[in-house]
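Figure S7 source data.
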Amino acid sequence: MFDIVFLGTGASAPSVQRGLTSQVVLRGEHRFLIDAGEGTQRQILKSGLGFKRLDRILVTHGHLDHILGLGGLISTFVRWEMMDKILIAGGKSALDRIRELLFGVVLKGKYPPVEIIFQDLESGLIFEENDFTVTAFPVFHRTPDCFGFVFEVLSDWQLSKFKKDPKNKGKIMDKGLWKWSRHPNYFGEITMWWGIFIISLSEPYGFYSLISPLLITNLIVFYSGIPLLEKRYKNNKNYQKYAKKTPVLVPKFTRN
Ligand SMILES: [Zn+2]
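Tokens for the predicted zinc ion complex:
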């Protein structure tokens, strides 16, 4: 599971209710700040997250409502020397603008006591841990080099690694989470939507959001998800053997 804290969802200019774009994605001890519009520092304080370990910053694009907050934030990091290094990853044009902001205005050419690393993004894997990955993909917007980010957990990651290994050609993935369920990624997806529904029950009319988990569960179980994949492997002997001992969706935990 990832936690996402929305620090700001506004665009162009802040409003009384909404700060400018910024989110923090958390997983274990890992934290990623995505975009930092003006006012991000106060939003971080208000959220109770604090500044610690906020040393990986991903930038979707270089528009000011997504990057101006970096001026104040980096200035604070540098003044307090809160971390050894900060990584800022983004498209080339966004990074050029951030460099101008930081080195032209905030640091004014001074060499900072904190190392600032700029990572010029391209589509593909940016970060890989034992049980999750972060991937960048291109997005179209009014400025060049825009990126979106995909945070993926264990099961998808295990499967893509398995598939990439030429030794596994023609074999069926039956390790890791795939040992307990034939479709652990779909199980995760369905559980997440039911979770969102339960959370939304605390809001007035939240009950109406029941439509989302019902729709997703239906699509995955009866239409596009599981039936298509199961059909593809219908005549695969190895898969049928694997299917005999592994439940289709809801995991059954076994020791070996
Ligand atoms: Zn924009």
